[in-house]
Amino acid sequence: MPVTRRLLAERAEHLTALVQRAATELLARLWTDANLDVLAAGVDATDRKLPSKGWMALRRLGWTVTAAPGVRLPDRVARIAEEEAARALRLSLHRRAVTAAIISTWPADPRKRTAEEWVLLRACLPAGTDRATIRNRTRQVIAFASGHGRLPSGFTELETPPRIAGQVLLAAADRQLVRLQRTGERAAQLWVQLPVMADPASYRDWTWHDITVPLPPTVSEQAALCTPTLRVRDGSVRVDLPFQTPMVPAPLTGHRRAIGADWGYNTLLTAVIAEPGPDDTVISYGRPLRFDATGISRKLDRLRLHREHLKTRISHLQKLAAGRGPAGLDPATKSKLELLDIEHAHVCARIRHLGHTLAWAGARWLIDQAHTAGATVVYLEDLTTMEAPGSSRAWNRRLSGATRGILADAVRHLGAKEHITVVTVPARGTSSGCPRCGQTLRHVKAPDNHKPANPWALCSCGHSADRDFSAALRIAARGIAGQQHTARNRAGEAGIRTTVDVPVHRRLAATPRPASPPRPCRDKHRPTPPRPRRRKAPGRVPGFTPAAHATAGSRPAPSGAVQRPAGRTPQNLTVQVPGPAAHTFSSNPLQARHRVRGAVLGRGFHHHVTSTPLLQRRGPRSGETPGSHRTAQKN
Fold first, then answer.
1. How far apart are CA 293 and CA 140, in angstroms?
2. CB 226 within 8 Å of CB 243
3. Per DSSP, which regions of 504-629 are E strands?
4. Residue 160 exposed, middle or buried by CB count within 10 Å (0-12, 13-18, 19+)
5. What is the pLDDT of residue 551?
6. What is the mean pLDDT of residues 339-363?
7. What's the pLDDT band for 111 if we cut at 50, 70, 90?
8. For residue range 141-182, what is the model confidence (pLDDT) as tens digits?
9. Can you list the positions of beta strands (E) in 411-500?
10. Which of 191, 223, 219, 222 is nearest to 207 (CA)?
């Protein structure tokens, strides 16, 4: 029989709670250094290699889930809980190896290691460990040592067991618990067993549920659907449905045209097109490509300030409730606290949604620019290797709330679909070094105003450009010159760790113009087409001036038989109306609401986002997905 959405979400929440409780209990029981040593060895008691599936590896080692008394937990649900615990344990192995290397080579001054101490640490660290991970783990050990007066004896003493997410990995089960079938081009059918109560006592408390899953347009007909993951959010069941599409991975080297993009706070992305030049140089077209999100950044700042104000009031009321003891707050104050919690949740959701949409819009624009220019690689700076010391708390809050992490993942995702490689380069020195000669730049307010600031970059060699544009040139040069050092990390993300700086020269060529529709014909061989009449501003009455509006109540109503006296119509700017109270009326007419035109702003997802329009390209590029882009802008 059909069930309501509320009942379906309630039963899915029961399954999520069972899995989360069982996985948390198993992880807490296995969180010891001895068990991590056994799992890191990769073999069981009979020296057989452990399976790749987490739940099978744990069962090979004899680590299984124990159900609570009186609760009937099916074997497939136990598999899901064991898979969650196994993934958490395997993810902790890398952090454990890094922590062990840092503790074994603990320096005299952990905040500033010497060259010899760095060499010794690098020899003990796992391959592919970046400086951000070393910095974070070192701070973790310093915090433990300052609180306990000694170094931690092991990784499990330094860290507590990680929290298990509220989700159900149906991929660890089989057809006895979940089934999935595609029923059309835009729909799929999911059958899953859910408990009808929070603590099912027998198998009769589990029943099948039929869920219709709509498929977005991004899932093609050739895509193979995989077993999804269930989660409950905001009182509804969410289905994370992965799918597989056969694709050829993009090459890491051999690129002849690239786009280098620099992050910014107001200008979210500033990019430039570059190519390899003669004698180990890089040639740039000199045309900046910008995705300006100043308006959205200001909106995010206002939302963050509002969120912090709400959080401050919530914390104040919570402290009052804690100080009153068992009595608690009065009903009026308690209802106020509930309203503040609801408003805080709404503001947080708004910030997440706006940041997520902005990140994907910027990624789509960048891949479109690469697709239109014929570039086969996009180079981004890796900000995880840097940390800005001495910044204010407000500036750090703005940077932490930025959407760069989501944008980088979105660029990689869209680039893989369009056969465009996305590579990160070292970020240190990209904004401070000159792309022509490599010397240190001088950052000023403007080309004609040499007051120290951030917008403009000057160099003694004659280089004068926008700071973000100058950094984009240097990023593109590092990527093109060091593409032979490109490698993938543990997550499969391509990156260059070796810094190779070469001079960048500008190609003296005509700047291409955006594609635009043909200009209208203005000859007189045909009748002039009618033009739309200009709308009148609201509040304006024909035949009445602002002064007439002000004094209309003190003069007789006009009629057709009465003629206006000779002389000019009064045009005084302000008129004082006689009476007990004097009111000043402005002569400015009421203005209509400001509307931003798309031709001025370019192509963007929001009316306060400006972006460089796309250029028209003659032919398709090899390896691209046909029909996936509009390669010309239509204003």
1. 36
2. yes
3. 504-506, 610-611
4. exposed
5. 44
6. 91
7. confident
8. 999 999 999 999 989 999 999 999 999 999 999 999 999 999
9. 421-426, 442-446, 449-452, 456-458, 464-466, 486-488, 494-496
10. 191
- Residues 292, 268 contacting (CB under 8 angstroms): yes
**Token digits for 320?**
């009052």
Spatial neighbors of 395 by CB under 8 A, at least 6 apart, are: none
Considering only CA atoms, which of 257, 473, 219, 467 is closest in space to residue 369? 257
Rounded to the nearest 10°, the torsion over CA 49, 52, 56, 60 is 20
End-to-end alpha-carbon separation of the chain, Å?
Answer: 53
- Sort residue 286 into left (φ over 0), alpha (ψ -120 to 50) or beta: left
Query: Is residue 169 helix, strand or coil?
Result: strand
Give per-residue pLDDT as tens, 126-146: 987 888 889 889 999 999 999
Answer yes or no: are the C-beta atoms of 328 and 301 closer than 8 Å.
Answer: no
Total residue count of the chain as it appears in this document: 635
Q: Which amino acid is at 527?
A: P
The mean per-residue pLDDT over the stretch 187-196 comes to 93
pLDDT value of residue 286: 79
Q: Can you give the pTM of this predicted structure? A: 0.66
CB 270 within 8 A of CB 455: no
Q: How many CB atoms are located within 10 Å of the residue 635 CB?
A: 13
| Residue of 583, 615, 380 whose CA lies nearest to 475 | 380
Give the C-alpha separation, 346 to 220, whole Å.
34
C-alpha span between 288 and 273 (Å, rounded): 8
| Burial of 634 per CB tally in 10 Å (0-12, 13-18, 19+) | exposed
**40-61 pLDDT tens trace:** 999 988 889 999 999 999 999 9
Q: Which two tokens stand for residue 422?
A: 């996305």
As a whole number of angstroms, the distance between CA 607 and CA 596 comes to 7
Structural domains present in the chain: 5-158 (no CATH), 169-244 (no CATH), 258-300+347-506 (3.30.420.10)
The encoded tokens of residue 71 equal: 């609760």
3-class SS of residue 613 = coil
Mean pLDDT of 523-541: 63
| Largest distance between two CA atoms of the chain | 115
Reported as type and span, the H/E element at residue 289 is strand 289-292
Is the separation of the CB atoms in 173 and 78 below 8 Å?
A: no
**Residue closest to 438 by CA, chosen among 469, 455, 463:** 463
Q: What is the number of other CB atoms lying within 10 angstroms of the CB of residue 556?
A: 6
Using CA atoms, how far residue 321 sits from 3, 138, 150, 220, 309, in Å, is 40, 38, 38, 54, 19
| Confidence check: pLDDT of 482 > 50 | yes
Q: Token pair for residue 156?
A: 């499990």
Structure confidence by residue, pLDDT tens digits, 232-272: 988 899 999 999 887 788 899 999 999 999 987 668 899 99
Nearest to 255 by CA among 491, 415, 434, 436: 415
Tokens of 227: 């077993």
* Tokens encoding 564: 């206006």
Confidence check: pLDDT of 587 > 80: no
Instruction: Give the confidence band of 489 by pLDDT, cuts at 50, 70, 90.
Output: confident
| Mean pLDDT, rounded, for 556-565 | 48
pLDDT given for residue 523 in this prediction: 63
> For position 210, what pLDDT does the model report?
92
